[in-house]
Amino acid sequence: MGKHPWKSSESSNFKSKLTQRLQIYLPTSGSVYHTLGDARKGLEYLEQALEMRRDLYKGSHPDVAGSLNNVGSVYDTLGDVRKGLEYKVQTLEMYRNLYKESHPDVAKSMINIGMSYERKD
User: Fold this and answer.
1) pTM for this one?
2) Domain 11-120 indexed as CATH 1.25.40.10
3) How far apart are CA 28 and CA 8, in angstroms?
4) Nearest Cα to Cα of residue 68 among 107, 37, 112
5) Minimal CB count within 10 Å: which of 33, 34, 46, 61?
6) Is residue 74 within 8 Å of 32, Cβ to Cβ?
7) Residue from 118, 112, 76 nearest 94 by CA
8) CA distance 61 to 28
9) Phi/psi of residue 42, each to 5°?
10) 34 φ/ψ angles, rounded to the nearest 5 degrees
11) Where along the chain do its domains lie?
């Protein structure tokens, strides 16, 4: 029988590559379900991606901020704008921590929050 990659000495490299791929596929799958009208299914994948990214990066990181925003957007779609805003405010705080004020991601995040407030009223 051949070697299994998870049992070999290259185990950590295999896990690292798998994690990198999941990091791409989970948010993409979540966005696809969301776009196709199954926001709840999309939310499941996006929340998994957020959890994985939080575990990987242990703090402020652009990928974590992007995942926070994606989850917030799905909550908006599901009609829970308050919960969506919670995630989007976390996104803004993280981008401000990463970039300070003068950065396009900070501006986009502020626009997203403003659009959520428009939906709320």
Assistant:
1) 0.76
2) yes
3) 30
4) 112
5) 61
6) no
7) 112
8) 18
9) -60, -40
10) -60, -50
11) 11-120
Count of residues in the chain: 121
Q: Which residues contact 46 (CB under 8 A, 6 or more apart)?
A: 26, 27, 30, 31, 34, 67, 70, 71, 74
Q: Give, for all 121 residues of the chain, the pLDDT tens digit.
A: 444 444 444 555 645 554 555 555 565 666 655 665 778 888 888 898 899 889 888 889 999 999 999 999 999 989 999 999 999 999 999 999 999 778 999 999 999 999 999 887 6
CB burial of residue 13 (10 Å; 0-12, 13-18, 19+):
exposed
